[in-house]
Design a protein that fits this description.
Helix content: 40-55%
Number of helices: 17
CATH topology of the largest domain: Glycerol-3-phosphate (1)-acyltransferase
CATH superfamily of the largest domain: Glycerol-3-phosphate (1)-acyltransferase
CATH class of the largest domain: Alpha Beta
Radius of gyration: 21 Å
Distance between the termini: 59 Å
Structural class: alpha/beta
Number of domains: 2
CATH architecture of the largest domain: 3-Layer(aba) Sandwich
Shape: globular
Number of strands: 7
Oligomer: single chain
Length: 390
């Protein structure tokens, strides 16, 4: 058995489907009523027989991604965003080598989905994407995401199992970049930053290092050609759910989200208004990493790498009137009053109240919840200002 066969076997339970597996996966999906029902949310006029026939025309993952997945994501964008845009393509490394895109994380499903359709539109091609196994709530979701070129991040395991899962994931990422030569996306942290205070977790960087063959951290990280991406949503349809979770955790430190909570967050993020959505491709970080001292203490080195990524993300946010209004509201100042009109302020205040009214929990603390939602719209601006020395 050669090394390639060993690799494929080792990655079987986390890798995307292969083209040889597409036909069986399609046949499994076309008979799944849950999938059909989910698609009716997005395409109310769905003709089931036509859809099944359409799915069966897909013979490869590329066809599934570029036809079915692309059309589905663009339908969501047209229904739930004012605009979906990307900038910074000129910063991509020359020759389009395989890259590891690392971004902040706003929406469970749509962050990598939106990125992929936009990369496809500019001719770069769609990436593999990391997805936590906690979101694979139903078997058909597992099949769909693997068919759509996702690889699985195992969560909820502990001790030695976690170490082994992290090593396998890291080896898979290195294999994909170096051998398969396919780009991929991973979030800068496990799960979304509920308060939008985006910060790269060093645990992610430690995982990325594990699968490298070099003895030093910088070489292993630089092999992955990391390119940070800044994601900016004008409105986060899950803001009220995130604020609600903050209070539930405050009131009960033992609170644990259910699968239904994750499903509700997925549905809400997909189906409701996001306003303007923009992705900015940042500068590849290898040149900045080459300036770091490889002899630093490991903890300091990981923190330094995380800071390089964070700075790129903070520098390239795009801001909207709601961010400036929220900043002035939470700080009690008029620092950015020239960045929004009275109409903008009134609109955001009304939006904020509508979102707060959606929260129905025991001992609802509206002042706390309001503050938490304001933080979500303020923190990206605060981080940008810090980066700029303002």
């Amino acid at each position: 058995m050669d090394s390639k066969e060993i690799d494929l076997h080792k990655f079987d339970d986390i890798r995307p489907l292969t083209n040889d597996e597409v036909r069986d996966a399609i046949e499994e999906l076309v008979t799944n009523e849950d999938l059909i029902e989910a698609l009716r949310y997005i395409k109310p006029d769905l003709d089931q027989e036509q859809f099944i026939a359409y799915m069966r025309t897909c013979r490869t993952k590329e066809e599934f991604k570029s036809i079915l997945a692309y059309e589905t994501v663009m339908t969501i964008a047209k229904k739930t965003t004012f605009s979906l845009t990307i900038s910074g393509r000129s910063r991509l490394p020359e020759g389009n080598p395989a890259c590891t895109f690392i971004s902040n994380h706003r929406d469970i499903v749509l962050d990598p989905a939106f990125l992929n359709v936009m990369l496809y539109d500019v001719g770069y091609g769609m990436t593999q994407v990391a997805i936590g196994d906690n979101l694979l709530i139903k078997p058909w979701i597992d099949t769909v995401v693997r068919l759509n070129n996702a690889f699985i991040v195992k969560r909820g395991v502990s001790g030695r199992q976690q170490l082994e899962a992290s090593l396998t994931l890291s080896e898979y990422i290195h294999h994909t970049i170096k051998e398969t030569r396919e780009s991929l996306w991973i979030a800068q942290r496990e799960g979304r930053a509920k308060d939008s205070y985006d910060k790269t977790q060093t645990s992610i960087l430690k995982m990325l290092n594990m699968g490298g063959e070099a003895k030093d951290i910088l070489t292993n990280i630089m092999e992955l050609n990391i390119v940070p991406i800044s994601i900016s949503y004008e409105f986060d349809p899950c803001d009220f759910l995130k604020a609600q979770e903050f209070q539930l955790r405050r009131d009960n430190p033992e609170f644990v989200k259910s699968k239904r909570d994750d499903l509700l967050a997925m549905e809400t993020g997909i189906l409701y208004n996001k306003g303007r959505v923009h992705f900015t491709i940042g500068t590849p970080i290898n040149k900045a990493l080459a300036q770091l001292d490889p002899a630093m203490e490991k903890a300091d080195l990981y923190n330094a790498i995380a800071s390089v990524i964070d700075r790129e993300i903070y520098t390239h946010y795009r801001f909207y009137p709601c961010n400036y209004v929220a900043y002035d509201m939470i700080t009690g100042t008029r620092r950015f009053s020239d960045m929004y009109s009275l109409k903008d302020k009134k609109y955001f205040e009304e939006y904020l109240q509508v979102q707060l009214d959606k929260i129905v929990i025991p001992n609802k603390d509206e002042s706390f919840l309001r503050h938490k939602i304001l933080e979500m719209y303020t923190n990206p601006l605060k981080n940008y200002l810090t980066t700029q020395g303002q």
